[in-house]
Amino acid sequence: MSHTSSAVARFTGVVPPVATPLNLDGTVDHASLERLVDHLIESGVHGLFALGSTGETAYFTDDQRVAIARTIVAAAGGRVPVIAGAIELTSTRIAELGRKLSATGVDAIVTTAPLYTLNSATEVGAHFRAIAAGIDVPLWAYDVPVRVHTKLGLDLLMQLAADGTIHGVKDSSGDDVGFRRLIAANNAAGHPLQLLTGHEVVVDAMALAGADGVVPGLANVEAAGYVRLWDAVTRGDWTAARAEQERINSIFEIVFQPRGLSGDATGVGAFKAAMKARGLITTATMASTVETLDDDALERINEILSALDLMPVAS
Amino acid sequence: MSHTSSAVARFTGVVPPVATPLNLDGTVDHASLERLVDHLIESGVHGLFALGSTGETAYFTDDQRVAIARTIVAAAGGRVPVIAGAIELTSTRIAELGRKLSATGVDAIVTTAPLYTLNSATEVGAHFRAIAAGIDVPLWAYDVPVRVHTKLGLDLLMQLAADGTIHGVKDSSGDDVGFRRLIAANNAAGHPLQLLTGHEVVVDAMALAGADGVVPGLANVEAAGYVRLWDAVTRGDWTAARAEQERINSIFEIVFQPRGLSGDATGVGAFKAAMKARGLITTATMASTVETLDDDALERINEILSALDLMPVAS
Amino acid sequence: MSHTSSAVARFTGVVPPVATPLNLDGTVDHASLERLVDHLIESGVHGLFALGSTGETAYFTDDQRVAIARTIVAAAGGRVPVIAGAIELTSTRIAELGRKLSATGVDAIVTTAPLYTLNSATEVGAHFRAIAAGIDVPLWAYDVPVRVHTKLGLDLLMQLAADGTIHGVKDSSGDDVGFRRLIAANNAAGHPLQLLTGHEVVVDAMALAGADGVVPGLANVEAAGYVRLWDAVTRGDWTAARAEQERINSIFEIVFQPRGLSGDATGVGAFKAAMKARGLITTATMASTVETLDDDALERINEILSALDLMPVAS
Amino acid sequence: MSHTSSAVARFTGVVPPVATPLNLDGTVDHASLERLVDHLIESGVHGLFALGSTGETAYFTDDQRVAIARTIVAAAGGRVPVIAGAIELTSTRIAELGRKLSATGVDAIVTTAPLYTLNSATEVGAHFRAIAAGIDVPLWAYDVPVRVHTKLGLDLLMQLAADGTIHGVKDSSGDDVGFRRLIAANNAAGHPLQLLTGHEVVVDAMALAGADGVVPGLANVEAAGYVRLWDAVTRGDWTAARAEQERINSIFEIVFQPRGLSGDATGVGAFKAAMKARGLITTATMASTVETLDDDALERINEILSALDLMPVAS
Predict the structure, then answer these.
(1) Rg of chain B taking only CA atoms, in angstroms
(2) B265 near A123, Cβ under 8 Å?
(3) DSSP symbol at C108
(4) Could you identify which of B289, B291, D73, D246 might form a hypothetical disulfide with D105, taking C-beta atoms 3.0 to 4.6 angstroms apart as the criterion?
C-alpha cells in the first residue's frame, strides 16, 4: 500500500465522483472503470472521488467497494489524489470499512453523519472523531442531508477542523447561506478545511463565494468543461467561468429527462446513459435494484447531447 | 443451524426488541444478554426481536451482530421464535448480512427500505424481493420512517404479501390511519401478514384496531405488564387491557426524563438505566458514540420506578 | 347574539366538521347548508364544528365565513353547541376574526398555531393567550401539523389548560403516542381539556385510549354510523364499536379513489361527491381553486356507496 | 391612487424588504417608517418591498397593512417603485387584500402559494391566475418554502410567465440549483420574469449566476453596502462585489447572536436592534407575540456593529 504522498493530499479544483460502470449482469466492469479514470485524468481533473453517491456505492458490498477503489487507485497511478467514500451506518462500521479502503492506497476517506440512528450534534462530533482515530489516512466530512437527513452545522465542522479530525468538507447540503458562512469561518480560522461544493450547476457562483473546488457528477459526462471552468475561476475570469458553466448546465438538463423514476435512477441513470452515448463506458447498467431509463428518456438525452456536439468522445 | 420449526414461525403477541447489554468497555455483555433473554421468556413473552433499534444494532459490526444473535438464539433454546433485524444500506448488503444471521438459527429476518439511496416505490419493492430471494428464512418488513425516511405504502406491502415476499410488518410509522388501512387490507386478503405495532403506549388501542402483536422496547424493563396486557386483549377484556396499558405508560415516562440528549441516548438510555436499576443487566453502558444519561435523569427515572414499585426484580 | 348557555359548552362525542355546500357558481349554498345541519343533528351528532378544514374555510373571505357561521348557528337552533374555526395567520388577526364569528352566536372558537411565521413554543403560547384575551367565548386549540407545520407540544397544551386559556384540543396530529400522553396528563390534571381526535378511522381505538370525542369529516357522508359507534363506546361495548368503525372505514375508502389530485381535492372532494350522491347537498362544487373529481373517481365512489347500501338518504 | 407609471414597474437591483418600526405600545411608528424609507432611498436602493416577512406583515391586521403601505408609498414619493406583499391564505382572500393595497398606490403585488391548504401544482397555478385577474397591478410570485411549505416549481413559474400571470419572482427557496435553472429557462424564454434572490449573503454569487436583483433584509441595517455591491455587479467587477459581500456578511452575523429564540425573533429582532443602534428607528419593539432579544444578544450585536464602524448613521 502506498498513498500518493506522506503529506495530507489536497483535493481542490475538479474532483469528479467517479461513476461505477457495470456489465450487463450487474458485476463491476473494471475495464470500463480503468478507461473512465484515464479519460478523466487526461481531461485534466485534479483529483478523484471514488465510491460516492454517483458511484452508486450504497448498492455494493464491501468486497465490491474494495475492488472498485483498487481499480481507481491503480488506474490513477499517482497522477492525481484519490479520496474514497466510506458509506456505512455508524463510526465503528465506518472505521472498519475505512481501513479496508485505505489499504487499497486511497489518499483520504470521506464519510457522512450516522445513518438510521437518532443522534445529537455532540454525538455526531464523537462519530467523526472515532472514525478519524480508527483510520490511517485523513478524513473528510460529506454533508448530504437529502440522503442522510442530518445537516452538519457550522460550529461542529469548525470544531472538527480545529482539533484536526477533518481536513475538508464536501458540501451537498443545498444550503448556500450555510456554505457561505462556512467559507468565512474557515478563512477566519486559517483555512484548515478544503471546501468542495457538490452542486455542479453553480460552480462559478460557489467559486466566487470561495469554494476550493467541486465534485461534479456531470464531469463523468463532460470533464473537459469543468476543467475549463475551473481554469477560468483560477485566473479570475468570471465572465468566462459563467459562460462555461452555462454551457455545462445545458448538458445537465439530461437529468430532467426521465419521468416518474427515482432520484438515483434519474441522476446516475442519465449520467450513465450519456457516458455510454459518448463511448466512455460500455453499458448503462444500473446497480440492483435501480430502475433503467426508458427509450423516450434516452432519446431526449441523446438529443441534448447531439445539440451540444457532445457525442462521441474520440477514443 | 436449526430454526424453531420447518414452518414459517409466527410472531404475534408480545415480541420485545431485545436490548443489548454492554460491559463498561463497550464490548457486548453476553452473560447479561443471556440473563435478559431468560427473564423475558420466563415473563411470558411470545417471541424475541433481536438486533432492532432498541438493540442498538446500527452501532455494531457484523461480527458483533452475529455473536449477539447467536447468544439470543441459544438462550431462547427454542422456547419462543426469534426474528433478527438486518439493518444495512441496500438489498445486496442486507441479503449478505441476512445469511450470516440466519446461520445463527434465527427464525426470520426483518429489514427496512433502503438507507441513503433515493428510490421509488417500485425500487423498494424490488429491494424486498431481492432480499427474500437471497436468504433462507422468512422476511418481514420494518416500517420506521423516523429512521429510514421512507414510508412503506399500503399498496406496496400488500403486493409483497401477495407474492410471498414478506410474512409480516413491524409498524413504527406513527401513522395510525395507514396502519388501520393495512389491517383492513390484510384481513380482506386472508391475513397473509402478521402485523405488529412498535408503539408500546397504544397497544390496547392498536389491538382493538386489529394488530396481531407488539414490539415494545419498554418490555425490556417490564415484560410482565405487556404479557398481562396481551392476555387481556386475547380474552377481549378491553377495560383490563386499558388499565394495564395506563400503568405501563406511567413507566414509559422514564424516556422523557433525560434533557437535551439525542433520541437514541434518551430512549435506549432510559431503558438501560431502568434495566440496571431493576437488576436485569449489569451496566447501562451505551453503544459508541451515544451519550450517557446524567445523574439528574437517572434520579428521576429511579423515582418513577420506585413510585410504581418496580425495583428491583427478584433474581 | 346568544350563545347556547352561559357556561362553557361541552364538545364531546361526535362533532362533525360541517362541509360547506356551494352553488355551481361557487357561492355558498345556504339552503343545502341548512339542510345538512338539520340532517346531522337529526342523525344524533353531539355538536358541530363550523369552518374547519373539511368546511374549506381557508378558501372563503371573512364575510363568507360569517355568513356560513350564521347559517349553521341558526339551523342548529341551540339543539347542539357549535364551535367555529378561526383560521388566520396570527393572533391579532385571529382575534379580530374570532370576534366576528362569536357575534354569530357560536359557542366557542378553535384555532391553530400561527401560519407563515417562524415562532418558538413560548411565542405560540403567547399567541393562544392573546387570542383568548381578545374573544368573548371559550378557545380551543387545533393541532394539525400537516397544514400548520407546527406540532403543539404536551407541555404547552397543559400550560394553556392550567391557566384557562384553552378548553379543549382537536388533535389531527397523527401522533398517537403524543395524544395518549396528552390524555394521561389531562386526566392527571383533573380533565381541564376536552380532547377530540380528528382521525375518523380510529375512533374506537382512540376512545379506548381516552378521547372525549371525534371530529369526523366522513360524518358529513354517514353521520348515523358515527353516532352508533359513539353509543357503543359510551356503553363500553368495544366489540360493537370496532365493528361499526370497520364498516365506516369501508366507506372512508372513497377518499382514496381520486388519482393525482391534491389533498384538498381528494378528501373534501370525495366527501362532497358522496354527499351529493346521497342527496344531502345539491352540487359537489369545490371552493376556488380546488380541482374537481373526474368521472372515473366519481364512478368508483358511487360503487363503494352502492356496495354498502348508502345511497340515497331518505329525505 | 397613482402608480409610478402606467408601464409595468421594474424591480431590479437592491429592493429592500422594509422593516416596520413600532412604538413601545406595539402600534406602527409611522414617523420612523417615513424616516427609514427616506434613508433607504437616499442610500441608493432601486425599489422597495413593503409588507414582506422582514416587515412582519403576517402579524398585522389589514388596516395596519394598508396604513403601512400608504406611508411607504408616500415617503417614496415616486422616487423608486414599491411592491407590496399580500400575505394571506388563498386566492380570493389575497385578491381582496391586494386590491386594498393597490389602492394605496403600490406598483405591484407579490404573494405566495396558498397557506394551510393542501394543493397540487395545477391548483397553485390557478391560485396565481385568480389573483392576477383580481387585482389591477402586476403580480409577482414569492417562493419561500420555509414559511409556506410549498416549492414553486420551474415549470409552473415559466407557465405563469408565459401567460402573463406573473412578472417576477422573489426567490427565498434556498434551492440554488433550482434558481439557476429558473434563470436559464427565463433567459431562454426572452426574460419575461425579473428574478430576485432573497439570500442576502450570496448576492455576488447569485448575480454572477444571473439574478436581476436582491431583496436583502439586512439592507435595513446597511443599505449603502448593498448599493455598492450591486454597482460592482453592474460594472462586472466581481472581485469588488465579493469583497463588499464579505464585508456585509460580517454584519449579517448579528442574526446569529440571539440564542434559543424563534426564527422571527432572531432575524427581524437582530435587524431592528441594529437599526435602533444606528439611529434609523426609535425602538426595536417586535410585533406581538414575538419575543424580544435579551441584553446579552444586544451586546454582542453592538460589538459586531462597533467592530465594523457601523454606528450610528449620521442623521
Answers:
(1) 18
(2) yes
(3) E
(4) D73
Query: Average pLDDT of A264-275?
Result: 98
- Residue A59, all three cell numbers: 448498492
Helix (H) or strand (E) holding C238: helix C238-252
φ, ψ for residue A29 (rounded to 5)?
-90, 85
A116–B288 CB contact, under 8 Å: no
End-to-end CA, chain C: 31
H/E segment holding residue A108: strand A108-111
Enter the C-alpha cell of residue A250.
445545458
State how far the Cα of B188 lies from the Cα of D79, in Å rounded to an integer: 71
Whole-angstrom distance, CA of residue B186 vs CA of residue B158: 7
**ipTM > 0.85, yes or no:** yes
Q: Binding site annotation covers A54?
A: yes
Per-residue pLDDT tens over the stretch A159-174: 999 999 999 999 999 9
Nearest CA among D46, D91, D52, D44 for reference residue D69: D52
- Sequence-distant (6+) residues with CB within 8 A of A61 are B92, B93, B96
Pairwise CA distance, residues D153 & B313, whole Å: 59
Q: Cα–Cα distance between D217 and D36 in angstroms, integer?
A: 13
Calculate mean pLDDT across residues D232-239: 98
CA atoms A83, A84, A87, A92: torsion sign? negative
pLDDT band at A4 (very low <50, low <70, confident <90, very high): very low
Whole-number Å distance between alpha carbons of A89 and B223: 30
Q: How far apart are CA B151 and CA B175, in angstroms?
A: 9
Residue range B13-235, CATH number: 3.20.20.70
Quote the CA–CA distance of A182 and A178 in Å, as a whole number.
6
Distance CA B100, CA B91 (A): 14
Residue of C65, C116, C293 to mutate, interface with D, max D Cβ within 10 Å: C116
Residue in this structure with the C-alpha cell 378521547, named with its chain if needed: C211
- Which residues fall within 8 angstroms of residue C133, CB to CB, at 6 or more apart? C95
The residue ranges of chain B whose pLDDT is under 70 are 1-7, 314-315
Q: Please report where in the chains the cell 401544482 appears, as a residue.
A: D121
- State the nearest Cα–Cα gap between C173 and chain B, in angstroms: 10
Q: Which residue has the cell 366538521?
A: C17
Flag if D176 and A205 touch (Cβ within 8 Å).
yes
Q: What residues contact A300, with CB distance under 8 A and at least 6 apart?
A: A254, A257
How sure is the predictor about D7, in pLDDT bands with cuts at 50, 70 and 90? low
Residue C188: its chain B contacts at CB < 8 A? none
Instruction: Say whether the A–C interface has 3 or more Cβ pairs within 8 Å.
Output: no
Tell me whether residue D235 is exposed, middle or buried, using C-beta atoms within 10 angstroms of its C-beta: 0 to 12, 13 to 18, 19 or more: exposed
Clarify whether D116 is annotated catalytic.
Answer: no
Task: Give the gap in angstroms from C-alpha B135 to the nearest C-alpha of chain A.
Answer: 16
Q: Supply φ then ψ for residue A57, to 5 degrees.
A: -60, -30
What percent of chain D lies above the pLDDT cut of 90?
Answer: 95
Alpha helices in chain D (DSSP H): 30-42, 62-76, 91-102, 121-134, 145-148, 154-162, 176-188, 203-209, 223-234, 238-252, 263-277, 295-307
Q: How far apart are CA D120 and CA D95, in angstroms?
A: 20
Q: Cβ D115–C115 below 8 Å, yes or no?
A: yes
- For D124-169, write each residue's pLDDT tens digit: 999 999 999 999 999 999 999 999 999 999 999 999 999 999 999 9
When scoring D289, D291, D293 by the number of chain C Cβ atoms within 10 A, the one with the most, hence best to mutate, is D289
Residue B243, amino acid: A
Residues 6+ apart with CB under 8 A from B26: B285, B287, B288
Contact between chains at A202 and D180 (C-beta distance less than 8 A): yes
Q: Do D223 and D16 form a contact (C-beta atoms < 8 A)? A: yes
Give the residue carrying C-alpha cell 426469534: B82
